[in-house]
Design the sequence.
């Protein structure tokens, strides 16, 4: 764990996030973005200059993806927006397909065809969350029956979609049709034990949160409350486990010019005082150099 470094401990003038989420390495800008969901903030860090910028909103941003032609596509509780980082202005692309008083968007990514996929989370922890696909300004419900949508990623060949339900401690896989964007053959990719949930670290391995796929096709998943990242082969075999200096990682992504810097967002919201005292990096973005690079983020098309 001593090899991990934290952006908020390296002179970056940004405080730790309450719930850091959905890190994005912008392939054109070569800068890192991430959200603080309850803090209602989008952050950007430029490793080349060491400078950071943040934008404050009136509701929760959950994730962002790079947009073809410039700017970002930003998922918020009140809808999908295009966001101009130069002016700070956003324009509504699609209204939320749910009741915002009880649901919000969570993590999302664009696929190789530029289709934006975004999952939701049910605030009341009931199985009413879903996975949506945005094409032409329209959101289509692609899968459902879960509570906390997470773990969204695409396989190396683009033919598999990974999708997790954090509450169920499960990661699913679907076959993805390149042509029409349809999903089929839903199956369990990984099922983790919920035994020990809410207990000390040694009694609980965590539950799947955000994820990313590397250049060898391996699936990296952050284990919330498990203080670790897990790396799985496409056939589901466990390849590696990386311990972290904080208990609640939320999502990994790969960045840097060679895509070999692994960034991990983390959380500190609602954590016990003794845990935060022992883990001062909670809420910071962590980084680690890794031998296998990641994949560049795909650009969304409107």
Sequence:
């Amino acid at each position: 764990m001593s090899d991990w470094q934290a952006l908020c401990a390296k002179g970056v003038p940004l405080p730790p996030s309450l719930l850091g989420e959905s890190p994005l390495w912008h392939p054109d800008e070569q800068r890192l973005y991430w959200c603080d969901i309850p803090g209602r903030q989008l952050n950007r860090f430029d490793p080349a200059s060491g400078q950071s910028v943040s934008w404050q909103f009136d509701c929760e941003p959950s994730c962002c993806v790079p947009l073809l032609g410039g700017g970002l596509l930003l998922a918020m509780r009140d809808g999908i927006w295009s966001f101009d980082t130069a002016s700070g202005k956003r324009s509504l692309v699609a209204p939320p397909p749910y009741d915002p008083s009880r649901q919000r968007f969570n993590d999302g990514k664009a696929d190789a065809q530029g289709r934006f996929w975004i999952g939701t989370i049910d605030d009341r922890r009931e199985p009413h969350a879903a996975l949506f696909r945005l094409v032409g300004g329209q959101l289509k419900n692609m899968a459902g029956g879960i509570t906390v949508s997470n773990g969204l990623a695409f396989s190396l060949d683009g033919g598999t979609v990974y999708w997790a339900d954090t509450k169920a401690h499960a990661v699913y896989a679907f076959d993805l049709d390149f042509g029409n964007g349809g999903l089929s053959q839903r199956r369990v990719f990984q099922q983790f034990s919920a035994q020990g949930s809410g207990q000390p670290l040694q009694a609980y391995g965590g539950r799947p949160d955000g994820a990313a796929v590397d250049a060898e096709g391996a699936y990296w998943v952050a284990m919330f409350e498990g203080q670790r990242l897990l790396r799985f082969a496409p056939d589901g075999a466990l390849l590696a486990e990386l311990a972290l200096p904080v208990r609640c990682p939320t999502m990994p992504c790969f960045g840097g010019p060679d895509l070999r810097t692994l960034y991990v967002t983390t959380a500190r919201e609602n954590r016990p005082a003794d845990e935060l005292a022992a883990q001062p990096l909670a809420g910071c973005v962590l980084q680690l150099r890794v031998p296998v690079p990641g994949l560049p983020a795909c650009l969304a098309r409107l």
